[in-house]
Design a protein that fits this description.
alpha+beta, Glutaredoxin, Glutathione S-transferase Yfyf (Class Pi), Chain A, domain 2, four-stranded mixed sheet, 9 helices, 4 strands, 57% helix, binds glutathione, transferase, transferase activity
Length: 198
């Protein structure tokens, strides 16, 4: 199998963490800048986005959620997502974190527009507020406190470190101090250190 990923992409990092956590071998990780519009990526994902997992039969899986569910189902016996029918609240927490990843990514796009003098204060503020509100909500659910490693925790760690990487000015630790403490522990995992955004 072949995983198209980029080092900066938090969605790619979630997948790379799961590969390491489940001890999956036989995936060739191919670093790819989606903005280059390389033929290799466009052939497997018409959206031109990473991550994308090409299976051994040539077919491909995207986006990150589909890849994560596939890996958990095929290699993890569902240990990360759990049994869907019985965990609707957990599913919503996953959706919240995924939505926050989208807000952080959209905020990055605003940041890039600033270089062209086209940043929108309205959208910048809206994405920032969504991030702060969402993290405060996650803090209150206590999901980071569970001892069992879940897909929510993996994606949350990727989200928080992506915010630090791209949006250091966002003072999220003030609204979610328990998450900050949790991240400082979680960050010690070898898989976290091996997949730092750059
Ligand atoms: N919903 C997608 C989002 C993937 C995504 O937006 N990836 C970014 C990198 S962080 C990308 O490839 N951007 C290129 C583009 O938007 O054209 C997922 O969960 O995989």
């Amino acid at each position: 199998m072949k995983l198209f990923y980029s080092d900066a992409s938090p969605y790619s990092r979630c997948v790379r963490l799961v590969i390491r956590h489940l001890g999956i071998t036989g995936i060739d990780e191919v670093i790819t800048n989606p903005l280059d519009n390389g033929e290799d990526l466009l052939e497997v994902n018409p959206l031109g986005k990473v991550p994308c997992l090409q299976l051994n039969d040539g077919s491909s899986l995207f986006d990150s959620e589909v890849i994560l569910r596939y890996l958990d189902c095929e290699f993890g016996e569902g240990q990360l997502f759990g049994i869907r029918e019985h965990n609707w609240i957990g599913e919503s927490h996953f959706s919240l974190i995924k939505g926050l990843l989208d807000s952080a990514d959209a905020l990055r796009q605003e940041q890039m527009r600033q270089e062209e003098g086209k940043r929108s204060p309205f959208w910048t503020g809206r994405f920032e507020q969504a991030l702060l509100r969402g993290l405060q909500h996650i803090e209150q659910t206590g999901l980071a406190m569970s001892r069992d490693l879940s897909i929510q925790q993996i994606c949350l760690a990727c989200l928080l470190e992506y915010i630090d990487f791209r949006h250091g000015e966002l003072e999220w630790r003030k609204v979610a101090p328990a998450l900050a403490l949790w991240l400082s522990e979680f960050d010690r995992l070898p898989a976290m250190q091996a997949t730092r955004p750059k």
